[in-house]
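WARN retry 2 of 3 for item q-0093 after timeout on previous attempt; input resubmitted unchanged.
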Amino acid sequence: MDEQEFVRTVAERTGLGRQEAADLTWATLETLAHGLSPGEAGDLVTELPEGLADAVRRGTTDRIERFGHYDSVRRVAERTMLKEEEADRGVRTVLAVLREAISEKEFGDLMSQLGTDFAQALE
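OK item q-0093 returned
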């Protein structure tokens, strides 16, 4: 799945405009990258199209942050100026599209580092 298709899918599923969906996607990937080890972030980057991989690179740090789904929603809402309800739906949607766009193994590795709070948000 290329970047345009990824963003278009997020836009269709959230009801957001294309630019809002792109901003949401970037903010979500960058935020989630804060919770990943550099190695896991690097693995994720290899499975994403270049533009989305840049968002993960920007969020990757040597210090892994621990935060739950709600904190990620709050951070994404602040970055995108979306209401928290829209950001919540958006973060869930980006994760769901990500599950379709990358390998099952990589998605499992990603979710194991993010924690059960994120897995429950997808259910």
